[in-house]
Amino acid sequence: MVTSALLGEPTTKDTYPAMLSIAYKEFLGDSPLWFKNIIIAFLLICWPLKLIAGTTILGWLFIAMFILTLAMALKCYPLQSGGVVALAILALGLTTPDTVWYEIQQNLPVIALLIFMVSFIYFMKPLLSFIFARIIVGIQNKVALSLLFSFMAAFLSAFLDALTVTAVLIAVFVALYGVYERVVTSQSEGGDLSEESLEGFRTFIRSLVMHGAVGTALGGVTTMVGEPQNLLIAEKMDWEFLEFVYAMSHVTIPAVIAGFITCVALELVGWFGYGAKLDNSVRDVLRDYVAEEDAKRTPRDVYGLWVQGICGVLLIIGLGMHIMEVGLIGLSLLVVVTAFTGINEEHSIGHAFEESLPFVSLLCIFFVVVGMIHDLHLFSPVIAYVLTMPMEIQPGAFFLANGVLSAISDNVFVATVYINEVKAAFDAGDITREHLEMLAVSINTGTNLPSVATPNGQAAFLFLLTSALAPVIKLGYGRMVFMALPYTVVLTVVGFIFQ
């Protein structure tokens, strides 16, 4: 028997199997066992595969593995599972740290947007919650309420970040649902409120939150700050804010209009889980809650809302005039909103960065895969094939290809790969600037519109699915895909027609 100097415990022949068992259980936490086994098996065979099959086939297998980690994001955050896959890519020499660092440097504006703009919006939540709460309880016509809700989410996402707007929607609904549920519990004996009305309220919230989530995609496609990949495409094309809006408008305007029409139609026919109305007893409970919050609002709270409102106007002006890089605008307004509302503790400010930094880390992992694709030229044959098609059908082909890939993986990843390949073709003199702009529009709209099909395709959808709101309103993966289906069909068809 040997005593371990580090553990201070005896080491026996049973220690090492036990440690291996613990290591297996701890690897990727409580992820499904089959998922763990696939990751482990692939990591064990990837080196022999490189020797036997070559780097091209192995590169495509790594892409498939990375897409799998994105598809399993609901069970295991891709930073861990995708991260170990990315480390294996580097270890096998399929790309280099220098290439990855170059990709990160090239996409620094996107990273700055995620870090500083999302953190700034964190301090805008009181104002945004104030606005949305009034919309929910103030409009009795469900069709008008759904349309306005979708419009507000689209408008805010066009200038802010769709993920943050979705976070605001979640915060509002969690608060209102919590209030109503407490009232139901307290009045369960002989009261007018019942479990039936509670279930009806869940259905009502599900429909509104899905309209709002799709609204973030409708607004997010229109501007360079609506989604992370939009900013990346704008940087590659040297487009300013208004230039980007104009370049996309021949596709985005019809798509947004079609999305709003779909919203109205779904509420009128009541298909796909839509059409539920707010019971009058529920409305009374929520109206009382809003009135109570208004009564408790102090002059300091009112002052804070005014400061946030002014910062919102400055944000729109700053983005419209492109005064500076988007990330720097977010940082500047972060300083303003905190300085003028008395927030001066590091601990309080730190919470604002908790929402953005995990995704920033994941984005850097993306760039390992992007670097591998670039170094191994994996997508070059696909891009070359599409570029050999007649010029008039190329935009539609790019739109559909990007849409399918974005729906099953991640739109930022897909857009990064395709815009880099197309830009490389332009730099090599294979296509004209006009043709490059057409394809850039196809890539942007393709990664934004059809990707509403699944939670994997939209970060805002994934955030909603993994939030505290989803289980209480019974919004699972399958239900979300089902409720998004009519939007998916309409936006894909309209987007393809107007390419």
Number of helices: 24
Derived from helix and strand composition plus strand pairing, the structural class reads: mainly alpha
How is the main sheet built?
Answer: 2 strands, antiparallel
- Which residues sit in consecutive blocks of at least 5 with pLDDT less than 50? none
Mean pLDDT score: 83
What is the CA-based Rg, rounded? Answer: 25 Å
Tally of DSSP β-strands: 2
Proportion of strand residues: under 5%
Give the H and E element order: EEHHHHHHHHHHHHHHHHHHHHHHHH
| N/C terminus separation | 74 Å
Spatial strand order of the main sheet:
1-2
Task: Write down the overall geometry.
Answer: globular
Please give the domain count: 2
Helix content: over 70%
What would you note in describing this structure?
The structure is a single chain. The chain is mostly helical. The protein folds into 2 domains: 94 residues; 290 residues, no CATH class. It is 76% helix and 1% strand. It has 24 helices and 2 strands. It has a two-stranded antiparallel ribbon. A hairpin with a 6-residue loop joins strand 1 and strand 2. Helix 2 runs antiparallel to helix 3, helix 7 packs antiparallel against helix 13 and helix 9 packs parallel to helix 22. The radius of gyration is 25 Å and the shape is globular. The N and C termini lie far apart (74 Å). The mean pLDDT is 83.
